[in-house]
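The material for today's practical consists of a large collection of protein records. There is nothing in a record beyond a sequence line and a structure line. As an example, a complete record with its sequence and its structure tokens follows:
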Amino acid sequence: MLHGRSVTLREVRRSDLAVFHDLHSDVVTASGASTYPWRPTSLARREAEFDRALTEPEDERHVRFAVQERDDGSGTAIGGTSLWGIDTHSSVAHLGIELVPTVRGRGFGVDAVRVMCHYAFVVRGLYRLRLETLETNVAMRKAAVAAGFTEEGRLRGEAFVVGERVDEVLYGMLASEWRDADPGN
């Protein structure tokens, strides 16, 4: 487990799937987090995919954590975070996060991003992280900046979200920038 000030990142458990299912059942939220068109998926299907993945080799290009409140003894997931597109040759990856609506705006997102930076730069030894989010996702944009990311660009009209074209905003952070921003890392 990895601990931040207010969150703990841990393995994804089968019991967390209902939380992720609820997050992805919301058309607007799910459409903004994926490059694929939204379609309904049953919890049973998610559980079957989870069970099947337990016996398959892990994808070294993707690592996912459940996010829970640090002092929550019940271990209830409040969201998830991941590194994806991990390129071990170039030492780069993408960072993603999703939180349930009831906990948004309480600093959990910023803390989870910071813990993921620690994981990426210290545990994995990566050189660079990239974070992409929609222009309309103000909370994620603020969390990225608060965690030390720099806005690097914009892909105009990149995303199609529920009938509208939306810009995608790109953020980046180098390991040296992360270390310089918080020497206690």
